[in-house]
Amino acid sequence: MSQVLSFNRPLPERYSLDAYKKHFAEFQEFQARAFHSQPINALVKARARFVDEVLLQLWQYCDLAKDKSISLLAVGGYGRGELHPYSDIDLLLLVEKRPGSAQHEAIGRFITLLWDLRLEVGHSVRTLKETLSLGKEDITIATNLLEMRLLTGNKQLFNELHEAAMSESFWTSQAFFQAKRHEQQQRHAQYHGTAYNLEPNLKANPGGLRDIQTIGWVAKKHFNTRTMRELVAYQYLTEDEYQELMECEAYLWQMRFALHLEAGRNENRILFDYQPAAAERLGFGADGKASVERMMKRFFRTVQRVSELNEMLLQHFEGSILNSQQKVKVSQLDDYFELHGHLIKASDNAVFAKRDNLLRLFWHIANNSNITGVHSTTIRLIRQVRRRLMGDLQDYEACRQLFLALLRHPRGMDKAITLMHRYGILAAYLPQWRNIEGQMQFDLFHAYTVDEHTHRLLKNLYKYSLPEHDSEFPLCSDIVKKMEKPELLYLAGIFHDIAKGRGGDHSELGAMDVREFAKLHKLSDFDSKLIAWLVENHLLMSVTAQRRDIHDPQVVAEFAEKVRDETRLNYLYCLTLADIRATNDNLWNDWKGSLLRELFLATQKAFRRGLEKPMDLRDLIRENQAEALPLLIKQSFIESEILQLWSRIKADYFARYSPKQIVWHTEHILRHKDPNEPLVLVSKAPIKGGTQVFVYTRDQAGLFARMVAALDSKKVNIYDAQIMTNKDGFAMDTFVVLEQNGEAVTSPSRQQSIKKALEQFIAGKPDLSRQKPRLSRQMRQFSVPPKVVFLPGNTKHRTMLEIAALDTPGLLCDLGQVFQQCGVNIHAAKITTIGERAEDFFLISNAADDALTPEQQSELKRSLIAQLSQQTEG
């Protein structure tokens, strides 16, 4: 006899809340111990039986067993006889007529006892007529009734409900199928159509438990069966497919059971908090990320198989079972494939014995815009042949030619690449792709696994060629349409992260992989070198734009020197934009877009001027002043007055700001009457994707710390800062800020609030001490060791400082206070957040307005590390 069945401690003879709670706790401990030795389905069913016993005894205790006009029914998952440790217990109390006061009181007492035991109970009290009426209107209720189970009470009443609920007059098979499919589509859309998130929901995500249940629900309704096993006899699924579904379900059940035990509640999200402990409980080891990676890889492969089976079986059910009598238009595509309506279908079961047909299938999908998907019988053939493959599809010359033809096809990156990824053919073609399938990325920067991120990048690249996206990506669209070989861009996208998780620099390893690919596929030396360079340098542009001062001609010149020519620049810009946008739906914003665009245009200008003659800083200053001056004179300002103000401002200012911004600042400074009061300007409309906050005030000790504290108090994120002190001792500082959601600050009241806070903080009125904000749940799972590095700068009178740390709330405010305490002046700041990691760059000087001495650097580093360590511990 199995251990699960050996829990034979009887319930206490008399009801006592403490005794029942103790009994539940003992059973919970027993199941936690048995988890390592018992089959998961035995554990899940044993819990349902255990709850059955409790409910029946409490039913008697409340004198409901004597009442012959009521039935107690288990519905939903509990109706199937399946319960995880903290699953909802769904009950239907079926009554002959609306309860009288005595029956109502008894039912209330019964439910209260269940709540006292802290059971997650979902219940309803309904008559037969009410149940059927509501079930006809609500697909969720109708679905729950499919799996109802009589626990106790009036059996005839239960039989009447069961017979009515399974009848075609309640829900027809066709209507039920359509409702469940629509429900599934809506659920998938909530998760962006993928389970390949880093904290997936194993129940609701595509490929999760709900998808397995949907496969069964539509068929059980049609065939009037109770179990999935019975559907094999109806040829709805094969014996192998049934076994595969049960194996997938068992693994997802194991994960769910472990999650419930770790969370101590009904938790279906595989949160970072529980991943290490769940992995250890599931037997993947206790070595941190490596254990989690093994667990999650298996999870992602499981949900991929479920998604594939779900698509195939629902399509098979609709076409071959529900609509078997309907005629579908059939047309021949070639000797191997035909078009059935809008689905491509293999002409016979031996089509894929010729291996290149696995690629030819997807070439047809790209070539024929009428094809919306693959026929269920052909999906079944793909699944069968994929398991029999020995070696990689790229070993065959015919496959290689078709793969390149697909990359070069104008619609190759549309449905074709998505379906190749979904059905495992991309992994069957590229051996390196198999390594990144379900590959976790342990940070908050990436929202998806490596393969899903890469798939999304390819879709972004494809959008550049579509006219309907011209306004979304105008520059990229213009570049791609002029590219002679956009397929090189796609190949760079496929290989840019393909070496992640293999140890070493993934950019360098990926470049080696793509060189081998180019050699095998007989690409030219030029094309091979270009793709390899793109893979090796795919982070160069984003790092430069987000961490360096792109308004510094020297930075642009260094970047241009690395890129070397305009062709590489075009490819790199398009790849970088697609890469960032495919990383995390919440990370892209117009500010990042404007940084990349500015860097692209500045580098393009440098190339067109000739790298040996990049734009001189003095030329840029003269150009900007010459454009701004007449605009100010038009506003009735006197030229001598303008030039007198400009003479007090350092020359760098005129290189870092556009003529329009110079005009904006100058006109307000000239109109500002009281020099003892700070002038604060907040841009009403976004400038280059962000809200610009300009401050003109007398310089003072700790000014940066005060301004940062003011912005921090208004809950805006700082992305960039230009800190400048004029020759007359006035500060001219600019911050680029965004709301927490990455949008510019557009509300007039919010803009006014930011302005007022800065004025007050600069005046020194508020207390800078504040309660330390709490770290978010996700952030607490990460550790970023503080790093303080002094870098060689472009000027001998300034020191460049890089700080990397965990992106805790108020980090910049804390850094500002350290700078103040150490007597450090800040001249420029570049604020970058990469998931959980903050990487900030500062251009600083000492109190004598010179570069920091080695002793001063050592003291500042010690103070910063101490502050950052304290912040992490908090």
From TrEMBL:
It comes from the Bacteria. Uridylyltransferase (UTase) activity is inhibited by glutamine, while glutamine activates uridylyl-removing (UR) activity. PROSITE patterns: ACT (PS51671), HD (PS51831). Residues 1-332 are annotated as: Uridylyltransferase. Keywords: Hydrolase, Magnesium, Multifunctional enzyme, Nucleotidyltransferase, Repeat, Transferase. Its cofactor is Mg(2+). One of its GO terms (molecular function) is phosphoric diester hydrolase activity. Residues 333-691 are annotated as: Uridylyl-removing. Residues 450-572 form the HD domain. This is Bifunctional uridylyltransferase/uridylyl-removing enzyme.
